[in-house]
Design a protein that fits this description.
This protein is α/β, with parallel strands linked by helices. It folds into two domains: 3-123 and 290-308, NAD(P)-binding Rossmann-like Domain (Rossmann fold), CATH 3.40.50; 124-283, Dihydrodipicolinate Reductase, domain 2 (2-Layer Sandwich), CATH 3.30.360. It has helices spanning 11-23, 36-45, 55-59, 76-86, 100-113, 127-137, 162-165, 178-190, 290-300, 305-308, 313-332, and strands spanning 3-7, 27-32, 50-52, 66-69, 90-93, 117-120, 144-152, 193-201, 210-217, 222-228, 238-242, 245-249, 269-275, 278-283, 336-337.
């Protein structure tokens, strides 16, 4: 059995990584947290787990196959380097760093050391996203030309968490949180982004809580990517327009929305295919986020673990390059070319 350790046991470590690791058959043998409350939670959730207070203590443990970094985003770049120095394969929660330049340096650092590295882009494995991918692959809307993806919520009072209280330089804000998922999804569907226009605002938090990106892909598709905490009426999760039809997806996990007419008819379907007045439900893809960790385990057992990792870390570098360009585009009110650091 693959033996993993988790650095950080807040929401990401406890509610996202630990359950998916265990679902994938990975044994979580140790957790790092400086919080007594989170240490107690780890011991309760994971009987027999070892709990240490600091990352160096975690990296000093023997018999570890994988380190999972579920820590606040601002420290990822430095922490990945520490894991690489320990010679242990690493899964780092998105984003890989707070900007593309530092992310590229981290990936090169891991490559020079020959230590496998991947990024936890778990939303690639959501059945909703996999369903869209299958719609595109099957040509159900014909040639796509516009992709709209939203992660919109109604949270007019900001939560007291580092994501809301930290500056963008320290990893806070929606661009490094939700937009890393949105951009990654668009790139996986339609290829690299060439240029971007954007609006970025901080209305209730230190970093942005309301951002919209208009991305032009090398394929010619244009993506509209929206994340906001101030949507009293969130838009549909997905609207994909093509020459032969459209695909609309309203339901996404437990997120509230007013689009009851587009709600899924049953658990076996996900979204609707429209051609004018005609519509039909689309079968739901079978996928789970634990599949990412299953792929990591398979990669670790392969002759070339880095090549087999489920997420190429350079994909995460490109995502951050798009976000960097969006910040400039919003500040200068112009379209900005995306410049991705080279391999």
């Amino acid at each position: 059995m693959t033996r993993a350790v988790i650095a950080g046991y807040g929401f990401a470590g406890r509610d996202i990584h630990a359950p998916r690791l265990r679902e994938a058959g990975v044994e979580v043998v140790a957790v790092c947290t400086g919080s007594p409350e989170r240490a107690a939670a780890a011991r309760s959730d994971l009987p027999g787990v070892e709990v240490v207070a600091a990352l160096p203590d975690l990296l000093a443990l023997g018999g570890v196959d994988l380190v999972v970094l579920a820590t606040p985003s601002g420290g990822h770049a430095e922490q990945v380097r520490a894991v690489v120095d320990a010679g242990v394969p690493c899964v780092v929660d998105k984003p890989l760093a707070v900007d593309a330049g530092s992310a590229g340096e981290v990936v090169r650092y891991a490559e020079r050391a020959g230590v496998p590295l991947t990024v936890f882009q778990n939303r690639r494995y959501d059945p909703e996203h996999v369903t869209v991918r299958e719609v595109v692959a099957a040509g159900l809307v014909g040639e796509p030309f516009r992709y709209e993806l939203r992660w919109e919520r109604w949270r007019p009072v900001a939560r007291d968490r580092w994501r809301e209280t930290a500056t963008a330089e320290d990893g806070g804000g929606l661009l490094l949180d939700l937009h890393t998922h949105l951009v990654d999804a668009a790139v996986q569907l339609f290829g690299p982004v060439l240029r971007v226009a954007a609006t970025v605002e901080a209305r209730t938090t230190r970093a942005e809580d309301d951002a919209f990106l208009l991305c032009t892909h090398a394929s010619g598709v244009v993506s509209h990517l929206s994340a906001t905490s101030l949507a009293g009426a969130p838009g549909p999760r997905v609207r994909l327009l093509g020459r032969d039809g459209a695909y609309v997806q309203a339901d996404f996990e437990a997120e509230a929305h007013p689009w009851t007419g587009q709600a899924d008819p049953d658990p076996d379907h996900c979204g609707w295919l429209y051609r004018g007045d005609e519509r039909r439900p689309v079968p739901r893809a079978r996928s789970t986020q634990a599949d990412l960790y299953r792929a990591v385990v398979a990669a670790l057992g392969s002759p070339d673990p880095q090549a087999e990792m489920p997420v190429d870390p350079w994909d995460a570098v490109h995502t951050l390059a798009v976000i960097d360009a969006a910040r400039v585009a919003a500040a200068e009110q112009r379209v900005v070319e995306v410049v991705t650091p080279q391999r």
